[in-house]
Write a structure and sequence with these properties.
Blueprint: H1 6-36, H2 39-42, E1 59-67, E2 72-76, E3 83-87, E4 95-105, H3 106-110, E5 117-124, E6 127-135, E7 140-142, E8 149-150, E9 153-160, E10 167-181
Antiparallel strand pairs: 1-10, 2-10, 3-9, 4-7, 4-8, 4-10, 5-6, 5-9
Length: 182
């Protein structure tokens, strides 16, 4: 068998080295990409989303006498001294039995002297309909004639003449009833 010429031998060695470098480069590249891969990408893919909600028919009971939740809201008085906030029950079948509503502004809470006037209404979908009370200092308590509220009904407080930038807050206290699963 004839021995290959020196130039053929160099060509074979060069091809072998090139092939070895390509394989090593691919392995290095794979190792680097896996090392840089965030852990959440390496984990098996699982559908992530909102958990399934129970059907409305699963709520077969009603619990009453619960402390009223979600009865707080605030807004900042505009440059014209006006602000509007509203609160109301949320969730199918929820009924509020409010005992009182506390009205406050930052100026009234810190100095005790406030010229704001707050009108408290019963309304639907953010539209004031029935005037329940007027608080002349912008701060105070409304305790009389607060009706029971169902979903879609709101207690709305509208301030006028407040100090611009004041936080105007409404806090409704009382009891509520809600649907429960049994």
């Amino acid at each position: 068998m004839a021995s290959p010429s020196a130039s053929a031998m160099r060509a074979m060695i060069s091809n072998a080295i090139t092939a070895a470098q390509a394989v090593a480069g691919t392995r290095r590249q794979q190792a680097r990409s896996q090392a840089r891969r965030p852990p959440w990408l390496a984990a098996p893919r699982v559908a992530v989303g909102r958990p399934a909600s129970p059907s409305i028919t699963a709520f077969t009971g009603r619990q009453t006498g619960l402390p009223l939740t979600g009865g707080q809201n605030q807004a900042f008085a505009s440059s014209g001294g006006e602000a509007t906030v509203q609160v109301g029950p949320q969730g199918a079948g929820t009924v509020w039995y409010p005992a009182q509503a506390t009205i406050s502004t930052t100026t009234g809470m810190t100095t005790g002297i406030d010229t704001a006037i707050c009108n408290v209404y019963l309304g639907a979908a953010g539209t004031p309909i029935t005037l329940l009370a007027t608080v002349f200092s912008g701060n105070g308590l409304v305790a009389a004639a607060l009706p029971n509220l169902t979903v879609g009904e709101f207690i709305i407080a509208e301030w006028s003449g407040a100090t611009p930038g004041d936080a105007c807050a409404l806090n409704v206290q009382g009891l509520m009833s809600a649907l429960v699963m049994q």
